[in-house]
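Write out this protein's structure.
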Amino acid sequence: MSRTRRPAVQRYHDRVAPRYDDSYDDDFWKWHDELTWSYLKPFLPLDLRAPVIDLGCGTGKWAAKLAKSGYAVTGVDISARMLDRARANVPDAVGAVVPQFVQADLADLSDLPRDTFALAVAFGDPIGCTPSPAQAIKQIRRVLSERGVLVATFDNRFAGIDYYLQSGDVDAMRSFLRDGRTHWLTSDPEERFAIATFTPEGVRRLLESNGFEVLDIVGKTVLPMRHHRHLLATSPQRRRWAAIERKLCRNPSAMGRASHIQVVGRARCGSDGPENG
């Protein structure tokens, strides 16, 4: 695909792929990922033979974690260079199951078989970076098996308020709060891809109107520890702060402070969403 035809989100991730992991290699992200895994574990398939899919897999962080746990993993990303990194990072699952990788926009998963995956994860807000999050949710519902589970993160709209206050642009703030649309902050205009942000209620509506039953919603993270990384330097410190975080993450009043919203949805039986797939 030529540079002029690649979507902005693909151009950006193709460019940063070689050094992407360096941006997420510190005490905060270690703490953040430990929380993510603890929230995900209750929804892992009991049957290790059940196929799972990592949507917006990037360099394969979560695909690798799932493969090491014994699952047959398929990784999907819009960026070919991210997939190259993932192929190098994701090991064969227990039993020598070879991981699969597919280049695709989450709004068009037509190259994947329907009714197949017991679990889909979509971490790092990839659904909100598609042209139509609702279409992406419908596509995800199509590839999930009966009662399959989606665990996904979305940018919390309220977390964007400070940025617009700092810019001093009241009209931009009004527009953002009205429709939740913003863009990735990068110096190259050709890489400024649109991002849809959501409130916790908006995430629930998005899933429930497209074939899912919502099982869980958490704020991640309520404590703004990315600004206090020095408090997470040791494992005992991370555990103590994580205990406080877990007490806050499902509190509806506290959830508005979180930078992201993590939601768990289970595919409703006999439903491919309002447009029936």
